[in-house]
Amino acid sequence: MPDFIADCRARVGFDLLANTWNGVLLWALRDGPCRPYALRRRVGGISPKVLNETLRRLEAHGLVTHRRYREAPPRVEYELTALGRTLLGPLEAVGDWAAEHGDAVVAARERARGGRLRREG
C-alpha cells in the first residue's frame, strides 16, 4: 500500500506548500494583520487576482481570516489564524534551508538548462 495516498495527512502539508504563493503569503502575514495592497507591496510579483485567490484558498483551509471594516471606503485586513501561525516554524525552517542551499539549487538548474541547450543545439 502506498505511504502517501491522496487523503494522507502528510499530503495535506505538502499540498499546502506546493502552491507558489501559499507559504509566501503566510510568511508575509507573520507580523500581524495586513491590507491586500500592503501585502502586494510586501510580497512583490503577485497580481491582485492571484493574491485574492490565494487569500481565499488560505481562508478556506483555516489558515487566514479576514476582517471587514464598515468605513468609507471599505477596508479589509487579512490575518493568520492560530492554525496558520503553527506553520511559521516549518516555513522558517524551509527558509533557512533555502538560504543555506539555494545557490546549489540554482546552480543545478542552470547546469540542467545548459545541458539541454547543448544537446538541442
Describe what this molecule looks like in 3D:
This protein starts with 8 loop residues before the first helix and ends with a helix. 64% of the residues lie in helices and 10% in strands. Helix 2 (20-28) packs across helix 4 (48-60). The protein is built from 6 helices and 2 strands; from the N terminus they run H-H-H-H-E-E-H-H. 12% of the residues are buried. The protein has helices at 9-18, 20-28, 36-43, 48-60, 82-85, 88-120; strands spanning 64-69, 75-80. By secondary structure, the chain is mainly alpha-helical. The protein has a two-stranded antiparallel sheet with strand order 1-2. The radius of gyration is 18 Å and the shape is globular. The model has no long low-confidence stretch (mean pLDDT 89).
Q: What distinguishing features does this structure have?
A:
two-stranded antiparallel sheet; mainly alpha; 121 residues
Short description:
The chain has 121 residues and is mainly α.
> Structural class, judged by helices and strands?
mainly alpha
Major beta sheet, strand line-up? 1-2
Query: What are the secondary-structure elements, in order, as H or E?
Result: HHHHEEHH
Shape: globular
User: How large is the radius of gyration?
Assistant: 18 Å
End-to-end Cα distance? 44 Å
Number of helices: 6
Percent of residues in helices: 55-70%
* Number of E-state strands: 2
What value does the average pLDDT take? 89
Strand content: 5-15%
| Unreliable stretches covering 5 or more consecutive residues | none
